[in-house]
Amino acid sequence: MFGPPLNAPERPRFGELSKLLPVFIVALTIFLLYSEYVILHGFRLLQLDRPPSSRVESLSNRGLQEMITFHIVTVLLLYCFGRCVLTHPGSIPDGQGWELQPDADDTAEATRDMGLIETKHSGERRHCKWCLKYKPDRCHHCRVCNMCILRMDHHCPWVYNCIGFRNHKYFFLILIYAAMDLAIICVNMFDTVWWSTRTDVPLSLMFLLISGEAFATFLMVIT
Asked: In b/e form, how buried is each residue of 164-180, taking b as 16+ CB within 10 angstroms?
């Protein structure tokens, strides 16, 4: 009911590859922070380079708990990110009185009878001059997607999609899970960053840990 118009010519969902660049940047950021946290922090706590008999049990248990929690949140983040990118936000359906009729009764009195909240300044029913359809409440035309979006919030280039009726929940969950993942990285990996400054480790390893911690902290602040 709230998908793309049935009679409209099909447009490729990802026709402009250049606009996929922000999506790849997000995916690359997730991959880099994931790799750094798991390899540089998680593997140190799990002590996989040592035989089981020489491992510190408290560190291994802590590492296991942190890895399980981190992976659960990361899987949820990736799921919501994928759904937000691939789910159509919802558009005005064909027919059912939504097609623009030049001779229709669009007076303020007729609009009030329909129960619409958003109207023109004159009180007439809103319509889209590009889609040639009447607009329900909170519906706006997106020039990037070239269609009217139901309950449109905004067009987000980071997911190459509009945030609207059908994917608003996934966008909101992305922000929650991203903040949780970044908080986990910042809090837990700080111990490894501190360890690298007090232990004889390669300078490159110390640089990776400090830069990763700083980058995760920056992303958590702006999320």
From this structure: bbbbbebbebbeebbeb
How many Cα atoms are found within 13 Å in the side-chain-facing hemisphere of 110? 7
Region of residue 97 (left: phi > 0; alpha: psi -120 to 50; beta: else): left
pLDDT tens digit string along 58-74? 999 999 999 999 999 99
Which tokens hold the place of 173? 């969950």
Residue (of 144, 143, 132) closest to 92 by Cα position: 132
User: CA-CA distance, 150 to 118, in Å (whole number)?
Assistant: 13
DSSP code for 127: E
- At 48, list the tokens: 């996989």
Residue 108 reports pLDDT greater than 50 = no
Average pLDDT over residues 110-131: 64
Structure pTM?
A: 0.82
Query: What residues are labeled active site?
Result: 156
Q: How far is Cα 146 from Cα 150, in angstroms, rounded to an integer?
A: 13
CB 119 within 8 A of CB 206: no
- Report the distance separating Cα 77 and Cα 223, nearest Å: 14
